[in-house]
Every structure is written in structure tokens, then in C-alpha cells.
Prior knowledge:
The chain is an alpha+beta fold. Helices cover 37% and strands 22% of the residues. The chain has helices spanning 14-25, 41-46, 59-64, 70-79, 82-91, 111-124, 180-184, 206-212, 243-257, 274-282, 290-298, 302-311, 314-318, 320-328, 383-407; strands at residues 7-10, 30-33, 54-55, 96-98, 103-106, 128-130, 133-138, 144-148, 153-155, 160-163, 190-196, 200-201, 216-224, 227-235, 239-241, 262-267, 330-334, 336-337, 345-350, 367-369. A seven-stranded antiparallel beta sheet has the order 17-16-13-14-15-12-18. Strands 6-2-1-10-20 form a five-stranded parallel beta sheet, covered by helices on one side. α4 crosses α15. The chain is elongated. The two termini are 24 Å apart. The model has no long low-confidence stretch (mean pLDDT 96). The protein binds flavin-adenine dinucleotide.
Amino acid sequence: MKDTNTVVVIGCGPAGLMAATVLSEAGLPVDIFDSKSSAGRKFLVAGRGGLNLTHAEDSDLFAARYGNHAELFRKLLGVFSPEDLRSWLRSLGVETFVGTSGRVFPKDATASDILKIWLEFLSKRGVVFHFRHRWQGFTKTGNPLFLAEGGECREVPADAVLLALGGASWPQTGSDGSWTEFLAAKDIRITPFRPANCGVEVAWSDHFISRFSGKPLKNLHLRCGDHQATGDVMVTEHGLEGGPIYTLSAIIRDRLAEHNPVALIVDLKRDLPLERIQEKLAQRRTKESVANFLRKNLRLSGPSYSLLREICSEEDFKDPSILASRIKKLSIPITNTRPLAEAISSAGGIAFQEVSEDLMLHKLPGVFVAGEMLDWEAPTGGYLLQGAFTTGYRAAQGILNRLKHRRS
Ligand SMILES: Cc1cc2nc3c(=O)[nH]c(=O)nc-3n(C[C@H](O)[C@H](O)[C@H](O)COP(=O)(O)OP(=O)(O)OC[C@H]3O[C@@H](n4cnc5c(N)ncnc54)[C@H](O)[C@@H]3O)c2cc1C
């Protein structure tokens, strides 16, 4: 290993790999470590359902996706934008395209293809990979300390360190949040991890689970407070999953944390106004069953009809005007969010007050942080990966500046 101006990057996810890219392109020797036996495991998982790399929307709208940290991300994205990400991918030979929803996907390449090309590129630049090295904090002299395979403790001399250890969802991919204890011991403020972009729990009856778990509820409009989402949702044995649920999961999580009862208000027939449904229901002859009538006249059957049955009382079904309002505003009580381990991403992590503009920890000069281990959250739609790439890029720039100033 080189011993002059060596930069140690810890974490082979998108944030760490992006930082290693910037640093190695600047000609620095880079050693990159990961506790797992291979790189980019969460990135590969992200690729399973269609790798959404970033989004093509207007920059202010994009920054607003980072909620309380919109202003900060507006600046960060100015340094490495979605367009910069696409150009950089193009330079690697990976073309991207904008889907109908504005989401950006790789063209003719899987996550695994991209990762392979990227790792080869880094190796050619001289980046040295060290797998099965679990970061264990710092030595008294400030060097990173690793637990290597076979239980060997290894101190690695470094002029600058980048931590890109991820959040705490999907711990099987390596991002298990166990790094928090080493930074908390240095008095660094870490907001506890919470699930983000996750499913929610509903106390379904056994009957409903046995018939409809794994079945989709199509074309819904969902509301929780002022927040709304539309689309298809999946019934699970625990509750509900799917894009619109993930969109609302942060508000649901925060309301539950305040011990407020939370209900999802669901419109099962978003293409029909209430009055039209009331008119239709008023035409039902008593001989015809409600189930038949709803199926024929409102195309409400299968999981959607059974959901109505699951939530409403017998009385609701007897009164056409109440039934119509239930169809338009079905209130589903939510008992919890699904656990952090299952969530697509995590909220929480290192508080932004702990870092400088270029993402160096105030309390540990020379140590920079990037990616999901910082306390930001964003919806699905490419904002998570872009957040990881952008912060990785920005922290690498910070390292380059610091080393330049130390030399001069
Ligand atoms: C199912 C799923 C689908 C997703 N789909 C998308 C999508 O389509 N679009 C999108 O934008 N985002 C998506 N994401 C989110 C995205 O993958 C993450 O936000 C992103 O990978 C975070 O990058 P990161 O580099 O910060 O952390 P990670 O990718 O989590 O990498 C952290 C690395 O640090 C290593 N590490 C952790 N602790 C230690 C330690 N103590 N010592 C050494 N190494 C350690 C880990 O092994 C890991 O390799 C998805 C996530 C999941 C789970």
C-alpha cells in the first residue's frame, strides 16, 4: 500500500465508488474497503426492479424532494447534477433514457453491467479494493482501524478518510448501521434510523389475507393528511406495499411516532365523482346483490370489493349514500410501518450540523462522509441514488481541496 497522501474510502456503495472515481481521476492513490466480499450489493438489489438512476425534472423541483434539506441539496446538486450523472455514465459507455414518468433508467445495461464496467474502470485507475474489512473506528493517531478476515485487526495509515457506509435498511447488503457506535463515541450527533419508502401494516382479517395477499389493488387515489399518491398498491399479509404507499410512508411514520392514530383515505373509483356513484347505487333493485351490482355497474370486484367488505360494516352496505362515500373515502387504519430492515431506504444518520459544506466532520478533521449515512431522506424515483452519487462526489472534492491546501 502507498504511504504518501493515501486516501482511504470505506464503503463500496454508489457514494464510496463515486468518491473513489473522483479521487483516482485526480491522480490520488485510493484504497477502498468494504465489510462484504464484493462491492455494490444494495446497488445490485436496486437493479432488480428496474434501476432508477435519477430523475429528469427541473432542478428546483428535484431539490425539493429532499424535504427539510432542499436548500442544501440545491447547492450539492449544483456541483454534481442529474445531467452530470448521465454524462458521466455516458463516458463509461452506459447510455440512459428518460421514462414517461421522468425517471431515468440505463439503456441496454443492468445494474450488474454498470457495476462491472465501473469496477474495471476504477481498477485500471489504480484503486485498490480490500473486501472483508469491517471498519471499527479510529486508532489514537486517527487512522482507520479494520477487523479483517480471520479476526486480524488492521490499522491503515491515511491522509484523508471518506466514510460511505450507507443507511440501515436491507442489512444483508452490508449497510447495517453498525458504524453509528464508533461515531457516537466521538460525540457526533446521529439521528436514529427510521424506515423510509416502506410498506405499512394493517390488521387484516385472516380471511382477507388468505384470499388477497399478493394481489394488486388497481388505480387507487390515496391520501394521508395533505399528502396524496395514486397508482397500484399490493395487499400483503402484513398490510400494503407499493409505490404510492412508499410515497406516503414518511408522513405515516412521523404521525405514528407522535402517537396519532393514522388512517389512509382511499378512493377506490378515482375516475367517478361521488354524485355519479350515488346515482348508480340508487338504481339498484333490492333483488340484485350489492356484490353483483358493484361488479357490473362500477367494475368493483375482486380485491377492491373485498377491501370494502373488510373495512365497512353491514350497516354501511345497506345505505347507498354511505356506501358511495365509503367507495370514495375508505378509511384504512394503519397500525405501523414495516420494519427498517425491509425498507427501501432509511431516514436518520449523521446530522448535517456535524459536517462542513464539503462534508467533512467538524469533530474529526480529515474525515469526510457521504451517501445514505447522512441524515437525509427522499422518495423513490432516482433521488436516493442521485443523493448518494452527489454527496460522494462533493466529499471527494472536499478531500482534494484539503490535501491540496496541506501540500501548499
Ligand atoms: C430494494 C431496493 C431498491 C432500490 N431501488 C432504488 C432505485 O431504483 N433508485 C434509487 O435511487 N435508489 C434505490 N434504492 C436505494 C439505493 O440503493 C441506496 O440509496 C444507495 O445504495 C445508497 O448508497 P450508499 O453508497 O450511501 O450506501 P450503500 O449502497 O448502502 O453502501 C454502503 C456500503 O458500506 C459497507 N459498509 C457498511 N458498514 C461497513 C463497515 N463497518 N465496514 C466496512 N464496510 C461497511 C456496506 O457493505 C456497503 O457496501 C433501492 C434500495 C433498495 C433496498
